[in-house]
Amino acid sequence: MLRRLLPTVCRTWLVPRTTITAVRNTSGSVYEPDYLESLKPKFPQYESLNVQIKGYDYPQLESYQRFLHGLAEYLELDVSDCYALPPQQTQVQRLRPNSTVIESEYKLTTYERNLQLNNVDAPVYPQFLRIAQAALPEGVSLQVQEHTDDCEERRYVPDKELLDLKSELERMGGATPTKKK
């Protein structure tokens, strides 16, 4: 009688074991819930990108920045920040041929705008870049780079009065630390 029960017990024992292993293969881990896998992004992502545009014509640059911002929103990219940097003045002198005599002098102003994008999917980034390059106006340069601490530091203008006071304090001998009793 024991021989008759043994084969049926073995058959029923093998079937659940194969289904259990199939379930374990679909989930990432025994100790983690399945919904954590679905929260991960499908594609690799760029953490933070700075889209930097520079040009000499202020209205054209502002219009192009507005276009890039709209394009990023259309492609469902996360635009975390848009900001302008102070304009830079450049003086250009044109000399007469074979002499040091100045023929004309120009003052050029370079304007800069930045767009900061976060969590950009890798397949969407080339599409954004192609459209941005195709619509790039004449005289405007486009540069995309990863966000660094230097990019963040460039955006803030130092307070001249505060810097002057600090240098005056250092010249006078610096701040003397006071000891508490």
From TrEMBL:
Protein name: Small ribosomal subunit protein uS10 domain-containing protein
GO cellular component, one term: ribonucleoprotein complex
UniProt keyword annotations, A-Z: Ribonucleoprotein, Ribosomal protein
Domain Small ribosomal subunit protein uS10: 50-145
Species this protein is from: Drosophila ananassae
UniProt cross-references to Pfam families, sorted A to Z: Ribosomal_S10 (PF00338)
Gene3D superfamilies the UniProt entry points to: Ribosomal protein S10 domain (3.30.70.600)
Entries under SUPFAM superfamilies matching the protein: Ribosomal protein S10
The organism's place on the tree of life at top rank: Eukaryota
